[in-house]
Amino acid sequence: MTAAPAFEDIRVEACTCPGCRLRNVPDAACRAAHGRRIAAVATLTGATLLGGAGASFAASSATALAPSASSASAAGLKASATAASGNENPQGQPGPLGGRPSLSRMATHDMSLTRQQILARAQTWVDARVPYVWNGYWSDGYRQDCSGFISMAWGLSANHWTGDIHNWGVRISKDALQPGDMLLYHNPANPQKGSHVVLFAGWTDSSHTRYVVMESAGGMGAVKRTIPYAYTSNSAKYVPYRYKNVTTSGGESGNGGQPGGGGSSSTAFPGASAFGPGANNAHVTKLGQMLVKRGGGSFYSQGPGPKWSESDRKATQAFQKAQGWSGADADGIPGKATWSYLVEGKGKSIGGATGGGGGATGGSGGSASAFPGTKYFRPGVNNDYVTQLGKQLVKKGFGKHYSQGPGPKWSESDRRNVEAFQRAQGWSGADADGYPGPETWKRLFR
């Protein structure tokens, strides 16, 4: 009969236990944990099986193992301490996408992206609060460190680091910086001492002394914040770069990531650069107004305006999803296809209705008779016009104040929904009192 081994050797070079994988514990920490376990097993086994002599052997074995475990533990602690430092951002080496990325999210080649798409990709990590783990990988396959963050935002097909990521960019001046560009500092003498790379998301002042940064940093993870130019440390050593594959019209097909995108339009698509964080122009107002007409009014707490907001992104995304688009095709940033559908009244409105008023030229949309008069919309009235009004409000996306379906009896829910619609037109005061007049009626049913 073969005797069972007193203890079993454990390969500590590449721990694959579920706990370590889930916690993304550095290899050094794994070796420390298993090193201590081997030492303990040796001590207990020797003491039990060999008596006094065995105890002496076990003690010497444990002593021999202890330095390795101790140094591994120190290395793991050093890595953790380094990751928590604002000035030291340990990073992995360049390599393929890691972990187990979703096939639908993997980049199979370096993407061509608009600035807004770059920022939208970066925002996904900020929203998910992706932690900083220099040797860990997020669900999209990108390494969870500063250079992995930029590799992800730029849609690169592999993970890069501060020592080579400049090869995917073109060096520019500070004055040329635009949202989606990167600021890079690489210290070749000691890459973990200060080396860092961040995404530029727009100036916050006309003097260009402060800006919005999106980054993955030790001790913070993926964040979006305002800081002095160029960074909080080693500021003079940061160099601006622009992604080589950045586009002005969106996607490799020039459609802003959406299918189609052709066709005639009474209002030409101004370009994806007109939209997204930091945008402030008349095109944003126009977009919001068209979205309101297609059922997106509930996303706005006040009327659409020229400054891009999260309300614009959510309303755009809802419209894109109403067309059956998903992923990058429904990222909340309008491309040619989105603009064309809105301008020409094509596709489905938010909430499932088909078609709608053209954003620039009117269009058919809902039909109704001429405005019946204000007397039909007051407390205590009960008529079919109130029902007709309520149904159209719901169709346009302004039905959130109804606890039950619209009916013929005028209620406070009707008034609040009408007010929300009026404010979405940019009206205020007496023009947004919640009681429909001829212009409210006209805009609701056109």
UniProtKB/TrEMBL annotation:
Residues 265-274 have a biased composition (Low complexity). It comes from the Bacteria. Keywords: Hydrolase, Protease, Thiol protease. The keyword Protein transport does not apply. Residues 81-104, 249-274, 299-330, 423-446 are annotated as: Disordered. It holds the Pfam family NLPC_P60. Residues 251-264 have a biased composition (Gly residues). Residues 112-244 form the NlpC/P60 domain. InterPro entries: NLP_P60_dom (IPR000064), Papain-like_cys_pep_sf (IPR038765), PG_bind_dom_phiBT1-type (IPR047763), PGBD-like_sf (IPR036365), PGBDSf (IPR036366). Belongs to the peptidase C40 family. NCBIfam families: PG_bind_siph. This is Peptidoglycan-binding protein. It comes from Streptomyces celluloflavus. The lineage of its organism: Bacteria, Bacillati, Actinomycetota, Actinomycetes, Kitasatosporales.
